[in-house]
Amino acid sequence: MTKIIAHRGASAIAPENTMPAFKKAIEMGCKGIETDVHMTKDGVLVLCHDEKVDRTTDGKGFIKDYTLKELKKLDAGVKFSHEFAGVHIPTLEELLIYLFDKDIYLNIEIKLGGFYYPDIEAKVLELLYKYNYVEKTIISSFNHYSLVEVRKLDSDVKTAILYMEGLYKPWEYAKTVGANMLHPCFEGVNREIIQEAKINKMPITVFTVDERKEIERFISYGVYGIITNYPDRVMTILKNKK
Q1: Mean pLDDT over residues 38-47, rounded?
Q2: What range does the record give for the signal peptide (predicted)?
Q3: Integer Cα distance of 111 and 19 in angstroms
Q4: How many helices (H) and strands (E) are present in the chain, helices listed first?
Q5: Separation CA 235–CA 242 (nearest Å)
Q6: Which of helix, strand or coil describes residue 32?
Q7: Hey, is 218 helix, strand or coil?
Q8: How far apart are CA 89 and CA 132, in angstroms?
Q9: pLDDT digits (tens, 9 = 90+) for 22-33
């Protein structure tokens, strides 16, 4: 059965990467959540897609320049809808506390763009072990150096390479960085790649698939997982296929 993974939570109906978005995904019956991790000025892991807070909050500037206390003063819901006014950027620890007694597959994307967050990989692993969530988590990143660092620190946690364009024999490349899975943009893979990846024991989860025809296509290809902003849409299609 294809895993359904809510992209930044149920981000089509609630502010992305906030607790309401994560909770709504689970209320829908979704068994997987994808989220993005950055680090504050005082070394706390927080959940936000962008390096800056400008797009999703009423603040401005880089997350790395805010302390957690300062970041928590920002409104991360009002730009989505006034219904969510007062919602704040959550920490990774807050999400793990919420998930602690739930059977939810967690995909953590480590965000490393123009700058590097010192020891972010070790901090992520520390929290996963603290809340006994290693077995239910996969760590992904577009920065594959970060995945190499994760693998140096831990041989058990699952990792996945994120990539946009078509890679030649991506399962072979993934092994060079110690990754267990492939997370390509859905436009960069076809049926043949998915089938060959399966043969090479390197399952594929595609992102971000929202249109019904594309959802149906990738389900028919037998992908391991689909990352989507509309988990309810994917669940309906899967139920109808039973």
Answers
A1: 98
A2: none
A3: 19
A4: 9, 9
A5: 11
A6: strand
A7: helix
A8: 23
A9: 999 999 999 999
Backbone angles phi, psi at 70, to 5 degrees: -70, -40
Of 97, 155, 162, nearest in space to 128 by CA: 97
How far is the C-alpha of 236 from the C-alpha of 92, rounded, in Å? Answer: 29
Residues 6 or more apart whose Cβ sits within 8 Å of residue 144? 161, 177, 179
Question: Residue 179's closest CA among 164, 162, 196?
Answer: 162
pLDDT, one tens digit per residue, over 131-188 is 999 999 999 999 999 999 999 999 999 999 999 999 999 999 999 999 999 999 999 9
CB atoms < 10 A from the CB of 159, how many?
24
- C-alpha torsion sign, points 8, 14, 18, 24: negative
Work out the burial of residue 105: count CB atoms within 10 Å of its CB; fewer than 13 is exposed, 13-18 middle, 19 or more buried: middle
Residue in 47, 52, 55 with CA at minimum distance from that of residue 107: 47
Is a pLDDT exceeding 90 seen at residue 122? Answer: yes
Mean pLDDT confidence for 94-115: 95
pLDDT value of residue 220? 96
All domains in the chain, ordered by first residue: 3-52+92-241 (3.20.20.190)
CB 185 within 8 A of CB 217: no
Residues labelled catalytic: 7, 49
| Single-letter code of the amino acid located at 29 | G
Residue 177: what pLDDT? 98
Supply the pTM of this predicted model.
0.97
Q: Which amino acid is at 86?
A: G
Name the phi and psi angles at 143, rounded to 5: -90, 100
Tally of residues, the chain? 242
Q: Residue with structure tokens 């024999």? A: 169
Mean pLDDT in residue range 192-209:
97
